[in-house]
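Follow-up to my post from last week.
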Amino acid sequence: MSPAATTNLGYTPPDGGWGWAVVFGAFISIGFSYAFPKSLTIYFKEIQMYFSVSYSEIAWVSSIMLAAMYAGGPVSSILVNRYGCRTVVIIGGLMVGASMVAASFGTTIIHLYLLVGVIGGFGLSFNLQPSLTIIGKYFQVKRPIANGLAMAGSPVFLSTLAPLNQFLFDNFGWRGAFMILGAIVMNCCVAGALMRPVNMKTVQKHPVTASKGTTAKKAGSTENNANPEAGDLLTETEQKIGGCADKLMDLSLFKHRGFIIYLIGNVVMFFGFFAPVVFLPSYAKGIGIDNYQAAFLLSIFAFVDMFARPGTGLIANTKWIRPRIQYFFSFSVAYNGVCHLLCPFLAVYLGYAGLVVYAVFFGVAFGMVCALLFEVLMDLVGAQRFSSAVGLVTILECGPVLLGPPISVFTSQEERVGWGRHGNATLRLYLLSSRPCTNTTVRHSEDGWNIYHGFSEFLCHVVILPTHREAVATGMSRSVYPSCIQGFDHNTIYDGILLPVV
Amino acid sequence: MSKWNCFYKRIKHEKQTLNITLSMVKLLHLGWCICTPSHYKDIGDSLVEKVEILKPIDLELACTWTGNPNKLPNITGYWRKDGSEITNSRLTVQLENEQYNLKRVFRITGDTLGNYSCIFSDTDEAKIDFNKKDKPIVAYVGDSVAMACKTKLPPNTWLWYRANGTEQELINATTDPLRYKISVDGNTTKLTVMNLTAEDSGVYVCSAIYNIKASVSRVEVRVITFMEPLKPFIAIVAEVIILVLLILLYERWSSQRSSHSPTGNNIHTALTREGNNGMDENTTTRQRKI
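User reply:
Got it. Predicted complex:
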């Protein structure tokens, strides 16, 4: 694909050795970042009763936390560019820990919004972003595997945090649990300690070949890389590349065509990406499956996801796929869409077994997309600018991630089907496939992809929805679901967990 | 865990028979059928099926109850419509194949739509009302705790008791407004106990008074001090600090070891905790080739 973007690091990344410890650190950080907001929902019923507020007011805590986590992306990028990954992760871990401990003493819901939501969310963003960046610093050849392994943190931590939270809640109530969770989250500082900046002395100098074409914003740097053939004499700016410190914020990314397309595609995709995760249990219950089995579907999904991510990393690293990793990513998004399109068929004709099959395939699809999500971005913009890129991407994804499921609920209640969101997935592919290709001979295959995607979308909206409207609408629309099972409040364990986060 | 199934069969009034089982309802329906086990289990699960009737029909409702631990050979079963018992519907139900079956044909017309429930009991039944809490609620000294009870139909009154062994002592919110607060909202009630002390641990009972009988549900409250979560908290923080120090020490040790190697220039010294800010830039600028 675009090899040039990836080699202007100025050095050859170690691709192993301490890098695996860094991957483990990133695994922990990413795991906490994604799983933590979701797992807090277990406490909501109790807190809701304690503060005498409505459920939507309490759900704001998670939403604010998520929003802060995504909005903190650019701030995080700037700090990483200035101070390096390790510092930012440690600060992030301390922030979340301190905010949770403070929240355990909170007396109003506003305290929770501010402490858990805003400060906690920013702390998590300071964890997420540097973890992704440092993988790009340490790995080049084995980067997809490293990414896949690190992203596997999310399902692993979610499956551990959920029962752990339940245990803490049963034994200590919500206040004590928050305090102990604050301590647990401080393990992110351990992850940060692992993120040693790359030792540039021991890696070989690599002449800068590609021009970044951007001006350095750091005070004191004089030369930019407009003259790469000047060769071995690396400048001050380039010397800083070894750590995570780069320019403060690289807004020239907006001129990068691949980046813009990736961004637009992501924004569109995220509207629909998480809807199935959020609605799967309700759908299952709507067609008559009982609570525990519906919740079990999610366990299956998370379990498969756990293995799909490193597996995808391994596959993406092979010499056939690595050069074409963008297409592999497009394929996985399309596969996602197709999976969801088939779900109503499976559910109606095969019942619970069909849904189990769907959960397995969906787990694979979800894992594939998540594992490749940042790898593809790294591939597009290069490890140099990745830190700024991921900051910009997260803040722009904030909107669809938060709005997606409510919009799906809204549209499904109007009898338009929420599964149609997967048309968005295929739409995304449509955009991705017109990405810049250094290799012009693949242009004809782009047309092929476009046709395929357009067709999938057509299929979705025109064929499937009308015929399965009822089954799907019954499933999707919560108002139809007979909710007379009193005492089974723990269905919310899974309903609540499924907030729209990767 | 008791299980029950409801089977519906439309009778040939319309020249077609539809078997709809509980697990796969494919059409949208109107009206309700409730199957409730009675006070054999003090906590039960109810399943409600909506059944839509398009024209006046004769509808046969059947309830099956399995898993009764007492396994009495005969129990009484009867039907209720909209919460009140249908006259002359009481039947003795035999235990057959480990289950009790109760069936009745109802003529459903526009006037007779409503909620139909089948009840199995051996004595006067009580309506189940619960906010299922097998596990105690944990609360802290000096803090407050709130517990709620909920039923399907609003009772005449709600009463809260504090249970001490076998006796129950009524909680009166008016005499003690600083400690107790009771709020009632239709079919839900909430008791808030403030300024908790260790003696407030115990079982609290909410009682819904109906015309027939009162039905109760219990909730256990456990009051602990802040010391309890503090111990695991300190343990975990200590573990974090130890690990971080170990990692940084290892780093310093391994970089010192390689600084004794012939490559000369001082590299990348180990990052100490204080020196984190800006340390990256320092070490990278220091190690230039040549």
